[in-house]
Design brief:
The structure is a single chain. The chain is an all-alpha fold. It is built from two helices and no strands. α1 (3-30) runs antiparallel to α2 (33-58).
Length: 59
């Protein structure tokens, strides 16, 4: 894997982390009930590809 590919993988991981953090912040501040759970669960599921992209960018 080239250095440019690693750079893009890390940028994707950073972008997904920002999106997941914003989603959690919105869910906790503005929503209640089932919608809050669904948004938090989606943000949690985003950490799977974040972890994979981070590992790829380090190899």
């Amino acid at each position: 894997m080239s250095s440019m590919d690693k750079m893009w993988a890390s940028f994707i991981a950073i972008g997904l982390m920002i999106f997941a953090s914003a989603l959690i912040t919105f869910a906790r501040a503005k929503t209640k009930g089932v919608l809050r759970f669904v948004l938090s669960f989606v943000a949690f599921l985003l950490f799977i590809p974040i972890l994979l992209y981070m590992l790829v960018s380090m190899i």
